[in-house]
Amino acid sequence: MMRGSRKHILDWVSQKNFSTEFIELINLRECTSGVSPVWQPNDKNSDEIRLENNGDLLISGTNCWRNLAQWWLVHRSGANKPNWDLVYACNIFGKRGLVLVEAKAHERELDWAGKRRRSDATLRSHENHERIGKAIAEAKDAVYAIIPGVNLSRGTHYQLANRVAYSWKIASMGIPVILLYLGFTGDEGIGDVGIPIENDDHWKRVMREYTKNILPEDFPETSLDCGNASMKMIVRSRAVLQQSPRKYNNK
Q: How many domains does the chain have?
């Protein structure tokens, strides 16, 4: 039984007018669909994408994805890699770029925890854990130099840290990035899991609280020059197309 943000992403990408609606939701002059927008998940492939493995499906002819994998992990085989709710390849400032989407439908979908390391972790896992910490620290230092107040860490808000770190790294390699935190509003069917996102104001309040002391207040909507391309984080919302099925029937 599919519920929450995963359901709402798949409901939306199956619509004929998805691409047009998506660009309208972004609502940035620098972001256009271009002549051949592609995205995943889509109506033919519902899988979430890991850019290290499948980035060529969106932007080909670059070493970016191999370099990204080496930057993030020592040992790729069997390791967890960030997967994206939706990635949309389009034109950003006239150049082929990516919109990376982190979608939520209730407050508890936002993960405040740090990256945990099990006490019985293997040597490979330990080495990956250390490499990830170094990658996030590198991204934090680089982004802090552009916009002071950034406090990314492996030890807290790990989900947010890896999203911002990835966005910076990809932009630093020449692919412009928009990092979209998307709140799906009005899903009363998931009230048993967490507080549903009511409307745009609610979502923006939740995101301000979530990013407090991690990102400066003006981080969203600020275009950051990462050397070879830009990145920008934005916060948007849209109403669900269909309610999630309720887990329990109230009698």
A: 1
Range of the domain at 63: 4-175+182-201+230-239
C-alpha span between 188 and 195 (Å, rounded)? 9
Measure the CA dihedral 14/24/92/178, to 10°.
Answer: -80
Query: Three-class SS of residue 102?
Result: strand
Does 108 reside within a domain? yes
pLDDT in tens, the chain (251 residues): 799 999 999 999 999 999 999 999 999 999 999 888 999 999 999 999 999 999 999 999 999 999 999 999 998 887 778 899 999 999 999 999 999 999 999 999 999 999 887 777 788 988 999 999 999 999 999 999 999 999 999 999 999 999 999 999 999 999 999 999 999 999 999 999 999 999 999 999 999 999 999 999 999 999 999 999 999 999 999 999 999 998 765 43
